[in-house]
Write a structure and sequence with these properties.
Elements: H1 4-28, H2 38-55
Keywords: Membrane, Transmembrane, Transmembrane helix
Transmembrane segments: 38-58
Length: 59
Amino acid sequence: MVSMQALIGCGLVLTGILIESAASRHWRAGVGADRLDARAALALGLPALGLAVMAAPIA
């Protein structure tokens, strides 16, 4: 059985990947961000948080 911790971690990682995909399509459409925006921060932060949740020894 899969633990709730693993499901939450995988969900965070996948959400971050989807946000990154949407942000890159938005950037390629010609809008182009010249500074760090919320999508870029989420695209980096959510997968890192998800991996940390999966690796944490929560009992």
